[in-house]
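hiii, so i know i said id send this last week but things got crazy w the move. better late than never?? heres the sequnce for the chain we talked about at the cafe, plus the structure i predicted for it. fair warning i was half asleep when i ran it
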Amino acid sequence: MKLYKRTLIITGMLLVVLYGCKPEIHEPLSGEGDGSTPDPLKSVSITNLPGAAQLTYTLPASPGLLYVKAVYENKPGEKREVRASYYNNSLVVDGFADTLLHQVELYVVTRDEKQSAPVTITVSPHTPPYLDVYRSLQVRADFGGVNVSFKNKSSADVSIVGLTTDSTGVFDQTDAHYTNADSGVYSLRGYKAEKRKFGFFVKDRWGNISDTLTGEYTPLYEELLDKTKFKEVDLPTDIGYGWGLSMTDLWDGIFTGYNMWHSADKLDGMPMWITFDMGTLAQLSRVGLWQRNQDGGWIYAQNNLREFEVYGADNPNPNGAWDNSWTLLAHHTVIKPSGLPVGTTNAADLAAAETGELMDIPLTAPKVRYIRLKILRTWTDGGYAANVAEMSFWGDSR
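okay and structure toks below
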């Protein structure tokens, strides 16, 4: 009897295994085509765009449609494919390097990968954004290098690649400025006040590259201003200091630790400001500001600055008024690289804090001797005190 039961159990297990090992058959998904070739697109209309074209169409009534496919060359010898779901009735073909006529083949594809006969249309893209940006480039001598301005009316993703001669005289890439802003100004620095060749070309995300704009420029003389000449100025309305951490700590050359300027408490909150004398009249090129940083602690937190302005004057009003004797040199908002909540930081935050907040001063700014730091906001919203570890200034004081 036991042998009989055991035989039945084994037989049942074998049947389960045999049933489970049946060859897997991939059947069509629900809504999949019937294996027939779909009809082609109907009524294709074209809207030409900068470096691209939008194609609008009517889908056929064929069963099991999955997507529409466009196949074309965006530049000679480089084939590109763009797809759009059957839920849409349009797609964009992009990446064109020029404004020539380009043929595009459009296919309808079903779920069982059957594709229709092609519908061939011709597009004529407008000027690609990378060429527009290139044609807008303006280059001029700047402190320690050159200043570059551009317009990018399509807000396209482009890189402006800078070239110059190296120490061996080779003309090679030295910088790449990535942007999708509609316009901008930036500088290449770190060069002596000696004539040298600079070049710039624009590249987009499809690898299209413009011609190279070249020219010879003599960078303007730039130096780090001598901080031993700096001294405190106490104008009416200026905030005092607290905790024994005076303004002289702003230029003691110590960027970390407990060496810093710390304001007195201002019970009605921000803004607050301080004034000091650089000891010399200078055409400023750059300003650097470093936040309190004690072994990575305090950065992007508490009384460190989050938004501030830097003003300059040659002969400020002694009554401390905000009048036309002061010129706004820079308005700056500190960006925390990690985006983590206040009190939490990572390696990127620490590296940025060590680099400091570096601000370019417009070439059109006047020469100044006196500096006013106006604090608008700290990392404690509603805070009533502020601190800064160090400030540095570059320019020409000759």
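btw The chain is about 10% helix and 40% strand. thought thatd interest u
miss u guys!!
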